[in-house]
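Format notes (please read before filing issues)

Several people have asked whether sequences and structure tokens are stored in separate files. They are not. Every record keeps both together, in the order shown below: the sequence lines, then the token lines. Line labels are part of the format and must not be stripped during preprocessing.
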Amino acid sequence: MPRSRWSARATGRFTPGNTSTGWRIVLDRLLSGYDGPKAEEIYRQRRGRLFGSYEDGKRYFDEVFEYFDRKKGLYIGQGVDLKKLAEESAVLGDGAVGREPVYVPPGDSFGHTTILGTTRRGKTRFMLALVRQMIWFDEDVFIVEPKGSIGQEVIAWVVEFLEEVGKLESFKYISPVFPEYSIKYNTFFGMDDEGLSSGVQNMILVDERFFADIGYEVTMSICLGTRFLETLWSKEDVENKILEEYRRVFGKRKIVDPVNMLAEPGLLDALVEPQNEGTIEEMDPPLRTLLTVGDVARYANKRGIVALLDRVNSVTEEQIRAKMAINYPNSQEAERKTVEALHLRAEAVKALESQADKPQDYFSKVSSSYKLVLDKLSSGKLGKLLNTTRINPLYDILKQGDAARVFVMQPAPLLFKEAAVSLMRLTTSMFMNWYGRVGMSGRAFPRPFNYVVDEAGAILTPEVIELLNKGGGLRMKMTLATQSFFDYVDALGPEKASVAFDNMNVKCYFAVNDDESKRKISDSFSSIKRPSSTFGSSGIDMRAQVNRTAEEILLPGHISELPRRTFLYQNAETKMLVEAPFLDDPTHFIEMPYLEMEEDINRYYGMTMKEVREWERGLADKTKKEIEKERIHA
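Then the structure lines:
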């Protein structure tokens, strides 16, 4: 029988791992108070294979962190200036130009960073070397790591980096695979109608823009209808409803750990809000302010649209005036609010009628992609992640000024396929909306925010170009790692891909294999004028002539031959060949909980046929009892 995830609690705060690299940390211990080994143990574990003493390990640490300098910017390794190397080596000979520490100046990192490179060339380790400095500089970091790995290397590295600065409690986790360990958040909370509808539009994975536009129109009609109905509530009643939700999530019931802002395992059922009983026509529509993905999915069909339209049409002008008179004692303000409500009702009716007039097969065929995505994001484990709460604790955590936070998000596209990509896009739209508000209000988040995405092709949408263009001025830094330039072209098309790529000021090119990427990189490094001498004789005297001929600094063939950990760095006129900072294998091994399928398979493993039949018989009896219980209840 496999060890359950809860039995790991009895083993202590941490247990030595089976690997030679260090500590095996169980995920639930990490999220519920694991404080890591002592500094001396870290040094010995990390360098035990190469150094025999704590002093030697500390010396290594001092060398690694020697180049960390907030004023100089992000240290990206040791490099040589290619232009200077090419020009001076022609005159002074090879070796004339030495290596030097290379930094991305603080202001330039807000211009965003792209990292290109084929697999197994050091791209992810370099990205994590940058994350390490972001953590040391006390900046918020949100890492999207789709793939996962044996021992969860990315999480293990992040844990080590947080241990180094004594802030392990800042670690936060998000994944639909393990919703019981994840921060739950409603991406729609705080979004305006346009931002919410655009977020839904962006997450629809279709080639034709027409189908994505359908998602925008249907979502906007739902937003307008629920917003009108919310205007009939008093401001105090709406605020009390929001406060009630905050108390439910962060209040005395301790459903959420106040330190880590994480739902306590085992209390998931208490946190999930039960569905209203009755048909959709009988349900009270949700407040627009607290709208979730599940709410949009519920109304995103002909029956739901008609039900919402009927509810809006049922409110008369006399009822609106009476409500405003009660909610706003000042007669002038009540009249102004009445006019606004009547205008909003007309707008909502127009939008809802436009959708309600369409035939039933329109929703079943044309908008199938839209409805399918919403259904996937509002049910199962993804639904638990996005519909457990109607507020957004992520926003509250980042707005707190006490300490920086580090989030690791694992959307698991191999398990959830298109829905995982939609989750990443929806989360990106959420950040876009937040920083759009920052730009309008002028009130920034307490510290710089780093959005670091591995395999970033999935989040590239036309709207992301706007974020790349404007986010830097709002203290948001994006670091996007992809396999090649073709990922940009595939997601955005040639023209918009070039625009997005040009908005990335800092470019780091590891070895790539596709010809388009190699040619684009080679062309961007331009050429130099090399001196060359020619000699001529007239029979009486000899003359020497010095000419300068143009030569490319870099040929396409060079790019595919770059050694591991070596990359080309380009930032404005700076063009260098750089060796990335050394990042050792993680000393930790993160042990994830067993998946349900794993548990089922492991139950069979090692059992005799008699035990298997008994276990199956017991499972069948249990199923029969549950069916009978449900029948009686019904």
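For reference, the curators noted about this record: Residues 1-22, 46-52, 90-96, 252-276 have pLDDT under 50 and may be disordered. The CA atoms of residues 539 and 596 lie 92 Å apart.
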